[in-house]
Amino acid sequence: MLDTALLATVAAVVREGSFERAARALHLTPSAVSQRIRLAEERVGTVLVVRGQPCTPTEAGVHLCRHADTVALLESELHRTMPALRHDMVTTPVATIRIAINADSMATWFVHAMQAFCSDSATLLDVTLDDQDKTSEWLRRGQVLAAVTSLAKAVQGCRSRKLGTLRYCATASPAFMQRWFPTGVSADTLAHAPSLVFDRNDRLQEQWVRRLTRKDMVLPAHRLPSSQAFIDVALAGIGWGMNPLALVQEHLATGRLVELLPDRPLDIPLYWQVAKLPLPELARLSQCVQGTAGKVLVG
Q: Is the pTM of this model over 0.90?
């Protein structure tokens, strides 16, 4: 078995990306961190950390980091309910819940869920951004304990709860519409008008076009990995994109942005998938996420 000090060291190296940064976080020397990693690897009989810039976990290292997070959460709960056990807080692992969510959820509602949770908790949140169609992979690999995802079917070892629907609108500036869609929005004009994509996994624009034209089209696109940049670039007349209605309502009301076609939204259902672990902090986070989503997302 690995003691909590070894677990915390492996997790710190993976989290911080280097032995030196992990040493500072743990108030140790880099040599001591290196010795602990070697000892942990000797005990489990396999490499846990790939040395590099940054250091990354092997598959075994990922599972060990998840175990370390779980242990830290359990210890945190024990300290919360039994204050007499609090002794050397410097060596007590900081409880962290790792989550994968899509950028538009982060930009529209998830911060409010974090606020509700953190107002009554000392647990830290480590949020990874990825496409809503890909966040479940982080759960499947054991790299996070929870995810906001478009996947309804529960990942093995997880529970799935529907949060609601995030509504998107295809929007552009009036000047862009005049330049690229002078005769209207059609398969032909869409094939030439520059669109916006978040990254190579972003398929929202293609989904909207497929529903409209019944065709699978390759769209010319600017790549912008930022929810706010999507809006700024659309306002600047550079491209059209699928923006969350919650972020562009004001611009639509003032006419700075217009819909490519009125009343043609794209609704993306979102689910909260969370590991089946008896962790009170994880349950509290789930309550905050579901409660906040219920107020913001379309039913």
A: no
